[in-house]
Amino acid sequence: MPFDPVDDKALPEACTGLYAGGGFPEVFAEPLAANRPLFEDVRRRVAGGLVTWAECGGLLWLSRSPDGYPLAGAVDAEARMTDRLALGYRRARVCADNPVAPVGTELRGHEFHYSTTAPTGHALELGSRFDSKRKRIRLANHLGQLPPPPPPPRSRAGCVTERFVAAVC
């Protein structure tokens, strides 16, 4: 069920899960930051256990503040835009159970962003196709990730999208 993060003052009451997809919240940071009632509702509901999957711009939107604009604060991280493009295919190993995949599952995706978040968290161990250098990505009862997931793969863990939907239904 859609909602407008600029104008709506709360998530829809019937909402049992939140998917905050990619986008460019830094472009709309001022009008987004002005919607404090929505952010209070999002923080309260995520803290209360609302299953949440955020990727790329959605992770920035859920963070405390990209580049100083106060946003949702549902993810205890600061985001910052950079001049450096992170681009490429990535593998991630799930390090904490979440609504999308159990511990040990390997996810693959692409990375395309100019942002960083800190602190990074403990949900995923991320590496590139060519090296074993790893960085951790965050998780509480939500999965926030850079890069976004690929189209839903099938694996021994099942389809990541199906697992998310099952967690919210």
Describe this structure in words.
The chain is of the alpha/beta class and 169 residues long. The protein has a single domain, classed as Rossmann fold, CATH 3.40.50.880. The protein has four helices and eight strands, in the order βααβαββββββα. It has helices spanning 29-33, 36-47, 57-62, 160-168, and strands at 17-20, 51-55, 65-66, 78-94, 106-118, 124-128, 135-137, 142-145. The strands form two sheets. Strands 3, 4, 5, 6 and 7 form a five-stranded mixed beta sheet that branches. Strands 1-2-8 form a three-stranded parallel beta sheet. It is globular and about 45 Å long.
What's the helix and strand layout?
Blueprint: E1 17-20, H1 29-33, H2 36-47, E2 51-55, H3 57-62, E3 65-66, E4 78-94, E5 106-118, E6 124-128, E7 135-137, E8 142-145, H4 160-168
Structural key phrases:
169 residues; alpha/beta; Rossmann fold; five-stranded mixed beta sheet; three-stranded parallel beta sheet; 8 strands; 31% strand; globular
